[in-house]
Amino acid sequence: MSLVVRVPATTANLGPGFDVLGMALGLWNEIHVEPASSLQITVYGEGEKTLPRDERNLVYQAMRALAAEVGKPLPPVSLTMHNRIPLQSGLGSSAAAVVGGLLAASALLGISPGQEVLLRLAVKLEGHPDNVAPALLGGLVAVAMIEKTPLAMRVPLPPEMHVVVVLPDARVATEEARRALPTHVSFSDAVFNLSRAVLTVLALSRGDYQTLARVMVDRLHEPYRRSYIPGYTAAVAAGQEAGAVAVVISGSGPALAAFAPNDHERIADAMVAALAQAGVSARRWVLPVVEGANVTFPAR
Ligand code: HSE
Predict the structure, then answer these.
(1) In angstroms, rounded to a whole number, what is the distance separating the alpha carbons of residues 203 and 201?
(2) What's the gap in Å between 78 CA and the centre of ligand 1?
(3) For ligand 1, which residues put their CB under 6 angstroms from it?
């Protein structure tokens, strides 16, 4: 049986929603799965020179975790990956690998473990929930860890929402970016973020960009991570000048996500131009908010 899994990029945190909010964006990784006599992994696109092509590969690790969970042996497969999500960019490339592997194994083994099991395994492999949850559920997702179990809910959004993503030419490992965070935060910063995270969800769900401009602000992680991102100040200023109501660090960066009701192309160009002027090359996308990962069975 051959099958194709498609998994979207994700932007986590959305400003004040550290480890809690995430959104699925229309930049897709594809995993083609075919029966084979032994494990074969081919990678095209992002990570084609660096990602492991043996059992250490994260997609394969996730496939193995799912098979172990349901107590079934995983048959040997050929995996061909077409990767569009840049690695260590803050756009959920590892979450996409994990979710892709879990869905690939479920389809291959002919089982439907259900979203709860998939999400629990995904969080276990990924370490934090706010990329894997939207990669799986799609759209805007709020997620909490209840004991060790993720509880995720999708928030309805207005149709046709788009997000500008600008990726300065740098890499930030999430682990490292998490080490930069303080171990304690003040009560006032906690309340600052709580209030704004709740209002960010409401503003996004209503497409209320005027409110978003006032509340998509963070004190828990961005102040500690900005310095990792080359050209950060120039890019944010240029984005805002071109019409973005908010520019936030996507996940742990270095990608930046800009929110605006319109003028997305202009905002993306302005941010890239500002980065170029600061001596930093960058890539940019205008991405729709999309549904979560899916599996198809192409006719042979
Ligand atoms: N919430 C996580 C962090 C997401 O900011 O560390 C990483 O993509």
Answers:
(1) 6
(2) 31
(3) 12-13, 18-19, 90, 128, 130-131, 174, 177-178, 221, 251-252
pLDDT average, residue stretch 72-82: 96
Specify the DSSP element, H or E, that contains 236. helix 232-241
Kindly state whether residues 120 and 200 are assigned to the same domain: no
| Mean confidence (pLDDT) of the chain | 96
Q: Residue 251 pLDDT > 70, yes or no?
A: yes
Cβ pair 71, 35 in contact under 8 A: no
Residue 179's pLDDT is 87
Are 36 and 105 contained in the same domain? yes
| 178 shares a domain with 194 | yes
Same domain flag for 151 and 200: no
7 with 151, same domain: the answer is yes
Q: pLDDT tier at 60 (50, 70, 90 boundaries)?
A: very high
Question: Is 148 found in the same domain as 39?
Answer: yes
Q: What is the pLDDT of residue 300?
A: 65
- The CA-atom distances, in angstroms, between 24 and each of 17, 133, 162 are 15, 9, 11
194-225, pLDDT tens digit by residue?
A: 999 999 999 999 999 999 999 999 999 999 99
Cα dihedral 166, 93, 150, 103 in deg (nearest 10): 130
**Residue 198, domain extent:** 162-288
Same domain for 127 and 33: yes
* Closest residue by CA, ligand 1 atom 8: 251
CATH at residue 7:
3.30.230.10
**In this structure, what CATH number is given to the domain that contains residue 211?**
3.30.70.890
The number of the ligand 1 atom at minimal distance from the alpha carbon of 90 is 8
Same domain, 15 and 135: yes
